[in-house]
Design a protein that fits this description.
Elements lengths: L12 H16 L11 E5 L2 E4 H17 L4 E4 H6 L13 E8 L1 H5 L6 E8 L2 E9 L4 E6 L4 E4 L6 E3 L11 E3 L2 H10 L6 E3 L4 H10 L4 E7 L1 H13 L3 E4 L17 E8 L2 H13 L2
Parallel strand pairs: 3-4, 10-11, 10-12
Antiparallel strand pairs: 1-2, 4-5, 5-6, 6-7, 7-8, 8-9, 12-14, 13-14
Length: 283
């Protein structure tokens, strides 16, 4: 079971996974379907935060910086209050980027699609990522050059590798509601299933496993996307910013501000270009 022996700058994969599981067990799962009204708040209209988000972020920050001395942390909840903290992503030191409860809307409404996302970056480069689904006990993990892995609650780690892409008409894709409606109404080709989980972490887990074939995202917050893009790439997938709509796209990197570009994930570069053109045709 590969770990990180050839990358001394990376912490032990399984140690991070244990921290995430412990925090989920202590701070997130006990609050699932047990939140009182005052434990759920709006950060912005329609954008929720719960006591679980804040408690899990504090616990992850303490445990991960202890595991990797000298590292910094930027979490979704702390960045919401102090957006200037995103600048740490550009620094030449290890930085943990945290989404303590990805899919907070689902979590707050007792729906099971939520995740914990932990990414390790340095100078805007993603080094490793963990996405953990607390209810199933599964973690998806990848590090640069070490492949993508499925870490179950019990049993050995299993490599994850995407197979050949099906025709677009037979694909399952994740798109926003308005784009789904346009594609169903006006698309020359319409993928078989179009959906949205409201949890990017679990979508990335399914993208890497091939259960979802493509996804498009905008308003790119690093805690939502940095780990997933790496996990998908290490599984053999292709993701890039669509840019001006020509060429192979622009590589994604976690940034020191919210990226306003459009990120398209696909099984391979040829399918990515075909999907980009299809989506642009209905916009």
């Amino acid at each position: 079971m590969p770990n990180t022996p050839d990358r001394p700058d990376l912490p032990d994969r399984d140690a991070v996974d244990r921290i995430i599981r412990d925090v989920a067990a202590a701070e997130i799962l006990p609050r699932f379907r047990n939140l009182r009204d005052h434990q759920i708040r709006e950060k912005n209209p329609g954008d929720l935060v719960t006591d679980a988000d804040e408690a899990a972020e504090r616990a992850l920050e303490a445990a991960l910086t202890a595991l990797l001395p000298g590292s910094a942390v930027i979490g979704e909840e702390m960045a919401e209050k102090r957006s200037h903290l995103l600048a740490v992503i550009g620094e030449d030191r290890p930085v943990w980027v945290l989404d303590p409860v990805d899919g907070t809307h689902n979590f707050a409404h007792g729906e099971g699609r939520f995740a914990v996302i932990v990414t390790l970056v340095r100078a805007r480069r993603t080094l490793a990522g963990w996405i953990h689904a607390p209810l199933t006990g599964v973690t998806s993990w990848a590090a640069v050059g070490q492949g993508s892995w499925h870490l179950p609650a019990d049993g050995p780690a299993e490599p994850v590798r995407l197979g050949p892409a099906p025709p677009i008409a037979g694909m399952t894709g994740s798109l926003g509601r308005k784009l789904r409606e346009r594609l169903r109404r006006d698309g020359a080709v319409v993928p078989e299933h179009l959906l949205r989980y409201r949890c990017t972490g679990q979508e990335y887990m399914d993208l890497a496993a091939g259960a979802i074939h493509f996804a498009q995202y905008t308003g790119l917050k690093p805690w939502d996307h940095a780990a997933g893009v790496l996990i998908h790439a290490e599984a053999g997938g292709y993701g890039a910013l669509t840019g001006d709509g020509t060429g192979p796209g622009i590589p994604y990197h976690p940034d020191t501000e919210i990226n306003r570009g459009t990120l398209l994930m696909a099984p391979d570069p040829a399918t990515w270009a075909e999907l980009r053109d299809l989506i642009r045709s209905v916009m």
